[in-house]
Amino acid sequence: MERNRITSVALLVTAFALVACSESPVAPITAPDDVATAKPASAAAGSYAISFLKETSTGLAPATDAEPVGTFLVLKSEVRDAAGNLATSGTVKYEYCVSKGNPAPAAVCDGGGGSWRRLLSMNIDPVGQLAGYGSCSTPQAIGFRFTFSGRSSGIASATSEARDFTWVAAG
Fold it and tell me: Which domain covers residue 38, as residue numbers?
């Protein structure tokens, strides 16, 4: 079942591939929300990690921080409470760094030379959120991060550390 889901996700991602790092986001890739959630009294600190997946001929696979030009990038957010349990409610807002109208590395935005632009927002599910970004036709690095809004999850709202993904010349 999981392999079929991954293959279906990869097909959906492929159908909406972006060309040359355009700014049109694709639809979020999510699993059904079939987990009941309780409303805790207060929010505690959690952990917030962004990671990268890439499309392969057999579905999605973990990506390094640098992949060849043309690699289709999928962003994954993972929010956990202090005990290590995945968040089951709340929202994530994916962002990427932009400077002078062009995607840029995270250090540019963190240093004040650019701004974070919203890619898309979605409700969280217990699997972790997947969002297709696209691919680039030229070598470049782009910074990504997400902001978690926990509201009733019991996990404090926060922003993940920014992370760069670099498309490198195929060699």
Answer: 2-168
> pLDDT per residue over 56-68, tens digit each?
999 999 999 999 9
CATH number at residue 94: 2.60.40.1940
**Range 101-112 burial, b when 16+ CB lie within 10 A, else e:** eebbbbebbeee
Please state the three-class secondary structure of the chain as a single string. Answer: CHHHHHHHHHHHHHHCCCCCCCCCCCCEECCCCCCCCCCCCCCECCEEEEEEEEEECCEEEECCCEEECCCCEEEEEEEECCCCCECCCCEEEEEEEEECCEECCHHHHHCCCCEEEEEEEEECCCCCEEEEEECCCCCEEEEEEEEEECCCCCECCEECCCEEEEEECCC
* 114 neighbors 105 (Cβ within 8 angstroms): no
Q: Mean pLDDT in the chain?
A: 79
Per the structure, how many domains does the chain have? 1
Residue 135: name the closest of 72, 75, 74 by CA.
72
